[in-house]
DNA sequence: CTGTTAGCGCCTTCAA
DNA sequence: TTGAAGGCGCTAACAG
């Protein structure tokens, strides 16, 4: 069952080293010998032992960097750090150490300075969550050109040549939300859509997906109304007050980004004949509380923990394989109150 | 950063072997030496290298068995097999080989005979999906008494002393479904609940959870009606016909177990003013089709693939640690049509 | 009770 | 272009 390099070598009448050269395509093998080895490999159905391989390879020590911009939500930041922390533990045995760099602004300069500083320290791979700005994109391209793996997570920079992206498909997550809302709200009832900042592609994408799905399920433009939260608590609260004063028969609220709490507070502090169904994103503890209390109906999560964790693990594979499995779009997870029992 | 046994040994003034004895609690170490080693361990913050450990330990070859009863759904069986297959590949490097045993009936005798046969072949651990019958439970107890890990998956045998269980909490999954339904259906509207076979605890549990949640959300007993599908296509179809003839204003159908297709076909072949919302379990390809077509509204999945895969991996940990992390209740995953885009 | 040593299977350097 | 050999860090058997 278990076939080793040694056995293949014996079968082919060569040494372990030669088989290794063939298996790992290191070149410097005479074609006819290579042919013979390949046949032996096939005949014995050799598969390399990943554990042994990892152990031997762990001599090549490497340093990678996880870089991200802090958000306003401490919980969110903590989940990212937790993912990094767990990945760090996992990667240690592979001889890979992880440095963390946190940016405080969305200024391209800050990112680029931090990247350069990290490279000075001998970093040879990045997992990075950064705004999609031309300067950053170019910087990434220059790193990739130097054969350095760069993986974007959570928020993609698709214009760049990043090795791959780990995160949610925002448009799809908006569609999932739209589909949920369409099942909750009935003909003649109205929906309020909270968009963050329209200039941010990421915010608009979810709303686009949401609206697409509403249309698909037969809703009319008059049935929904978009407002901009500016990602600000007070703005959100006031907008909701205004809209609920103007309109009636609102049965759905979609919060495409934080601050979910503003919406929760608004609903708790006002009473309605028919309480509106709330669909929102990301499982912050406060958001889950609203879900449990029945103020919110559904949360769609993107597992930010997994994103930071997984992107770091992919970096390891990138070192071994020169590349990594074509990125990874992590799931769109739906939760209702009963999920947290 | 990386601390090895060797370094700890040097620090404590003993040999690697002795440190190993302390780390792995193999005994035979003089208390004062042990004390010294423990201090060194702490001082250097030693953590064992899992890769190296696994490689060395893989010398101890082991055989485990995955045993399950075939269901009527070929897709379901295939997912179980896929999980086993992937686990097999993963475990190979650990020196663990996996045998599969498939039972055709729910007869305790068949299971017990197959278990005995496996033990003849040198199996030393089981991952098993079996009905909860006293004879099987006793058999499991006798294996566990001989220090053999036995993990139940998908369907638990809680009366037994199985090492742990990997699967969904059925009651909770019913609650999740109930909560969804409660958000879809409004006052005055009715819900039909398809229970499989009431004598099967597993079927009843989901329905209990479902009803619990309906009550919690203020629904009245008159609003729902339970029927028994017998897990049979024709029975299900006929029951639905009858109920829809008798009652009107039915807006929700909950299928707690297969055959979901009977429900799908029924809805496609009849037309209603208000099409009822369908919430059901398990992502068989046919069920997903109905979801995509908009005939079904939500599917709640239990990732059976992951259950068979994960239970086998836990067996590996059980060999190393004598026990394994207190089982694992895998998630309750909610899907709507947009999830499959 | 403790130290020594021979692997586990692969990777990598160094000679040849 | 190839073979030989010395690790990677840990486990386990054996000798003392």
TrEMBL record, chains A, B:
Stored SMART domains: HTH_LACI
Keyword terms, alphabetized: DNA-binding, Transcription, Transcription regulation
MF GO annotations: DNA binding
Keyword Transcription regulation among record annotations: yes
Domain HTH lacI-type per the UniProt entry, residue ranges: 3-57
Gene3D superfamilies reported for this sequence: 3.40.50.2300, lambda repressor-like DNA-binding domains (1.10.260.40)
InterPro entries for this protein: HTH_LacI (IPR000843), Lambda_DNA-bd_dom_sf (IPR010982), Peripla_BP_I (IPR028082), SBP_2_dom (IPR025997)
Protein name in the entry: LacI family DNA-binding transcriptional regulator
Lineage, highest ranks first: Bacteria, Bacillati, Bacillota, Clostridia, Eubacteriales
């Amino acid at each position: 069952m278990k076939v080793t390099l040694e056995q293949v070598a014996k079968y082919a009448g060569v040494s372990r080293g030669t088989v290794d050269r063939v298996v790992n395509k290191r070149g410097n093998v005479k074609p006819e010998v290579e042919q013979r080895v390949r046949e032996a490999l096939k005949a014995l159905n050799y598969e390399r032992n990943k554990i042994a391989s990892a152990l031997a390879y762990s001599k090549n020590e490497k340093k990678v960097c996880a870089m991200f911009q802090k958000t306003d939500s401490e919980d969110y930041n903590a989940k990212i750090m937790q993912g990094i922390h767990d990945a760090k533990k996992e990667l240690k045995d592979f001889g890979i150490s992880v440095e963390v760099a946190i940016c405080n602004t969305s200024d391209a300069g800050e990112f680029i300075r931090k990247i350069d500083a990290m490279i000075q320290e001998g970093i040879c791979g990045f997992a990075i969550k950064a705004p999609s700005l031309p300067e950053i994109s170019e910087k990434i391209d220059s790193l990739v050109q130097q054969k350095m793996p760069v993986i974007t997570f959570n928020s993609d920079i698709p214009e760049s040549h990043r090795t791959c992206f780990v995160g949610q498909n925002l448009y799809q997550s908006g569609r999932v939300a739209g589909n949920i809302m369409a099942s909750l709200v009935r003909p003649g009832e109205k929906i309020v859509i909270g968009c963050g900042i329209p200039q941010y592609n990421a915010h608009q994408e979810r709303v686009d997906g949401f609206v697409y799905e509403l249309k698909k399920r037969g809703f009319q433009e008059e049935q929904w109304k978009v407002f901009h939260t500016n990602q600000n608590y007070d703005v959100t609260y006031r907008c909701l007050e205004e809209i609920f004063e103007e309109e009636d028969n609102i049965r759905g609220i979609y919060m495409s980004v934080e601050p979910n709490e503003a919406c929760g507070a608004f609903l708790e502090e006002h009473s309605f004949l028919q309480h509106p169904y709330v669909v929102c994103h990301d499982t912050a503890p406060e958001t889950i509380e609203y879900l449990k209390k029945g103020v919110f109906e559904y949360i769609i999560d993107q597992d930010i923990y997994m994103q930071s964790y997984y992107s770091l693990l992919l970096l390891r594979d990138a070192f071994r394989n020169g590349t990594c499995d074509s990125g990874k779009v992590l799931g769109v997870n739906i939760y209702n109150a009963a999920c947290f029992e």
